[in-house]
Amino acid sequence: MSKLFTPIAAGALSLGHRVVMAPLTRMRSGPGDRPNALMREYYAQRASLGGLIISEATPISRQGYGYAGAPGIYDDAQIAGWRAITDAVHDRGGQIVMQLWHVGRQSHPDIQPNGEAPVAPSAIAADGYGYAAHGPVPFTMPRALERAEIGGIIAEFGAGAARARAAGFDGVEIHGANGYLPDQFLQDGTNMRTDDYGGPIENRARFLLEVTRAAIAAFGADRVGVRLSPSGTYGSMSDSDPQATFGYAAAKLDELGIAYLHVVEPRIKGTELIAATKPVAVRHLRPLFRGTMIAAGGFDRAGAEAVLETGDADAVAFGRAFIANPDLPDRLRLGLPLTPYDRATFYGGDARGYTDYPFHAHAA
Question: Annotated catalytic, 234?
Answer without folding.
Answer: no
